[in-house]
Amino acid sequence: MADSYDSRYTGFFACFNRQEYFEAHEVLEGLWLECKDGRRDFYKGLIQVAAVFVKLQQGKLEPAQRIAARATTHLTRYGPCFEGLTLPLVIGLLNSVRDGQNPLAIHGPPRLALETP
User: Fold this and answer.
1) Confidence category of residue 1, pLDDT binned at 50, 70, 90
2) Structural domain includes residue 113
3) What is the DSSP string of 33-58?
4) Nearest 10 degrees: CA dihedral of 91, 92, 97, 103?
5) Is there a domain that residue 112 lies in?
6) Domain containing residue 84: CATH number
7) Structure pTM?
8) Count of structural domains, the chain
9) pLDDT tens across 40-96, in order?
10) Domain, as residue range, for 47
11) Closest Cα partner for 110 from 58, 98, 99, 91?
12) Contacts from 25-34 at CB under 8 Å and sequence distance 24+?
């Protein structure tokens, strides 16, 4: 991943792709709390994406659906590519959860990747 991104941001993707969704949430939270610019809601949306997958791992679809709706609200303000992340893929995952599907059970764990700047 590109050196120009904050290590907490890239750490989010590393944890997420290892299916360590709780850890992905935790690693990005510090960056979100420090952020005072227009990226704040973007980071909040990604934290919520991780929370969605924590709930899916726990087999709790309804809470995952509620969090997915909030995450979608935050992330649709950006894109289609923001901070190196292609958002239609992420929003598609969230929409499938909102529609009552569990991407973990259907397709296996999703992988998120950053484009190089």
Assistant:
1) very low
2) no
3) HH--STTHHHHHHHHHHHHHHHHHHT
4) -120
5) no
6) 1.10.3450.10
7) 0.92
8) 1
9) 999 999 999 999 999 999 999 999 999 999 999 999 999 899 999 999 999 999 999
10) 7-106
11) 91
12) 25/50, 25/51, 25/54, 31/6
